[in-house]
Amino acid sequence: MIVAKKYLIACLLCFGSYLSYSQPSTDSTLQQATLESCIQYALQHQPVIKQSELDQLIAERTIRSALSSWLPQISGNYSLQRYLKLPVSLFPNFSNPTSPERVPVTVGVANLSNIQFSLSQNLFNRDVLLASRTADTYRDQARQNLINNKIDVTVNVSKAFYDLILTQKQVDILDGDIVRLERSLQDATNQYKSGLVDRTDYKRAAIALNNSRAQRKQAQEQIGGKAQLLKQLMGYPPNGDLKVTYDTLQLANEVYIDTTQLIKPESRIEFQLLRTQQALLKANVLYNRWAYLPSVSASANYNFVFQNSEFAQLYSRNFPNSLIGLTIALPIFQGGRRVQESRIAELQLQRSQWDLTNLSNTVTTEYRQAMANYKGNLATYRALQENLDLANDVYRVIQLQYRSGVRAYLDVIIAQNDLRTTQLTYFNALYQVLVSKLDVQRALGTVPN
């Protein structure tokens, strides 16, 4: 009985661990995927953002590593030597100083050990000085790269989100159109059986219904692919469930933007990145000019020297020594390399100024194109708002007239097609104006991140 209980407990533990492993964490998926939640999820899980955050940490560690050269550098060294045969040196014959003869003499002891402690301090070094002056600039560059990637992710996720909900809305519109066509087909069939109309009416209804079903099937198939694209841009689990939620009225209220804003290239993150790069190039010019200056460092050494003919007694006698020193290294002639490298650095700095000029022109062009597209799409959207109300009213009236026998069924089909087309073009116009608004915000450098 005890063995059976132990076996049952072990099975429950294994099954529980399997469940806890197989069930994904609720933090990795979204319960309701609104646009804001999708963007926030992407900013926390997108691989590009994670890489940029790691790049920031790498940059910080790199800066600290470079700045560590300003601190004293302390090292230790230990050596142990045993001469298998002692060295021999030639000395003058002290018994006969006038003789040119040299007498071989064995020098040293068989066992030697050395323990050395060294300390060095950079007083002036252009590499360390460059690291010190550009530390904050490198931090800014890593931070700006992260911001730039966040802006890209925000814009891409927003556009993919709008594209997905547009397709979902198309499916909803076609669902409503299918319901209306099914009702019209039933009415046309009943009137044909009653002898009020000929067979062409219900055949036209059947053709229109089949076409609408085919369009819905096509739109429904596109939803899966567009949802997968949105997941990829968000860094979302590929097999995770993503239920997109949105409010059409809220989207309609978000189409407007202040069109009187003036373009400021310096507000663009790309411009700020170029400015940072230019600051690094200026520092590089100074770095190459410092090549004419000497490198200065101070040092101190303390040595414990142990010597003895008997290995067992090696560390019984110590002959320490110490020293301090100052080293000045001055490059005198390097074949003109320093002149050429200084000139290259100056030319690179001049080139970066043209990059800024080109970016300013590009930003101005992007803004004007984006604003023109936005205004055109907004005008189309406003016109289609009115058309949508008119198409609904026309379809309702013609449907009533057809049931009363005043209108032909062809008029009903035309009204249905006009209503469906107007609804589809209206929401497509809403999508276009939202996307063009994003382009304007990006051109202005006002995309939230």
Summarize the structure.
The chain starts with a helix and ends in a 5-residue tail after the last helix. 64% of the residues lie in helices and 13% in strands. With 449 residues, the protein is α+β, with helices and mostly antiparallel strands.
Present the secondary structure layout:
Elements: H1 2-22, H2 35-45, H3 47-67, E1 73-82, E2 88-92, E3 102-106, E4 111-124, H4 126-193, H5 199-234, H6 248-253, H7 269-289, E5 295-308, E6 321-329, H8 337-403, H9 409-444
Antiparallel strand pairs: 1-4, 2-3, 4-5, 5-6
Helix pairs in contact: 2-4, 3-4, 4-5, 4-7, 4-9, 7-8, 8-9
Protein name: TolC family protein
Main location: membrane
Signal peptide: 1-22
Describe the structure.
It is found in: Cell outer membrane. One of its GO terms (molecular function) is porin activity. Keywords: Cell outer membrane, Coiled coil, Membrane, Signal, Transmembrane, Transmembrane beta strand, Transport. With 449 residues, the protein is an alpha+beta fold. The chain folds into 2 domains: 36-71 and 125-294 and 332-444, Outer membrane efflux proteins (OEP); 78-122 and 299-329. It is 64% helix and 13% strand. The protein contains 9 helices and 6 strands. It has a 4-stranded antiparallel β-sheet. A two-stranded antiparallel ribbon has the order 2-3. Helix 3 runs antiparallel to helix 4, helix 4 (126-193) packs antiparallel against helix 7 (269-289) and helix 4 packs antiparallel against helix 9 (409-444). It is elongated and about 150 Å long. Mean pLDDT is 88; it is low at 1-26.
